[in-house]
Amino acid sequence: MEVVIRPTHEDAAELTARFIAHAIRQKPKLVLGLATGRTMEAVYHILVRLHKDEGLDFSLVETFNLDEYIGLPPAHPQSYRHYMREQLFKNVNIDLRNTHFPRGNAPDIEAECRRYESAIRECGGIDLQLLGIGRSGHIGFNEPLSAMFSRTRAKALTPATMAQNSPLFPNPEDMPRRAITMGVGTILDSKEIILLATGEEKAGVIAKAVEGPVTSMISASALQLHPSCHVIIDEAAGSKLQNKDYYHWIFDNEPDWDDYR
Ligand code: F6R
């Protein structure tokens, strides 16, 4: 795991977007895993800018979103498919047939989870997976006690996640209590991972995920086991880390980051 601390939310989002753009330029048929949520809005905004200003080409990119609420049809304004269409897809030259989501309104949820796993396998696996982190330590919707080897499945959401996301629904009571999510094992199979977290409210959970023990109580701590995982945070989200000086030194001195400084 590698930790990069940038001064502000905007800087952290810019670095994340540039990292994704670099991966797309290296491999135009990139299989890209995507996350939703408030933190990602700035990333998608910058990717749209890079598409318009620098011709970043999404035409061959294939995407797989991490999760979807159970019970919401794809056109529902709070569905993650709708979020992605508004934040990114309608503003870049992506082929919508190459964008994949678990179907939250599938009649047989278990069969839908198996279908999603096969679709990822048929594309050759995820090259780069983008992640956020919830206050419960979740990645995707892998709430505490999610097995390290878990695959795409239905998961009941914790009260912390309900409190985090229900204000995004016009009537908070309408937020589904269950979601389909890629498993921790599915995520760990990605070839490369980038986790973005910003703001003081994430400082506690970032310290646990990055410097705490690997535990299923904090699903994001499983990322410590991945050979190529970059955690990009702002100063606020990094404020409870113990080895900040070391992380700063790495970003300032390691040649891998030359393209991004
Ligand atoms: C959603 C997802 C979640 C969010 C997390 C952070 O697709 O994967 O794990 O990334 O809940 O959400 P925000 O950014 O709204 O704090």
Please describe what this structure looks like.
The structure is a single chain. The protein has a seven-stranded parallel sheet, sandwiched between helices. It contains eight helices and ten strands. With 261 residues, the protein is an alpha/beta fold. The chain is globular, with a radius of gyration of 17 Å. It has helices at 9-26, 38-54, 80-87, 109-122, 159-165, 184-188, 203-211, 244-253; strands at residues 2-6, 31-34, 62-65, 67-69, 99-100, 128-131, 153-156, 178-181, 192-197, 229-234. The protein has a single domain (2-260), classed as Rossmann fold (3-Layer(aba) Sandwich), CATH 3.40.50.1360. Helix 1 (9-26) crosses helix 2. Strand 2, helix 2 and strand 3 (62-65) form a beta-alpha-beta unit. The structure holds fructose -6-phosphate. Fructose -6-phosphate is lined by residues 35-39, 66-67, 80, 132-134, 138-140.
Jot down its keywords.
261 residues, alpha/beta, Rossmann fold, seven-stranded parallel sheet, three-stranded antiparallel sheet, 10 strands, binds fructose -6-phosphate
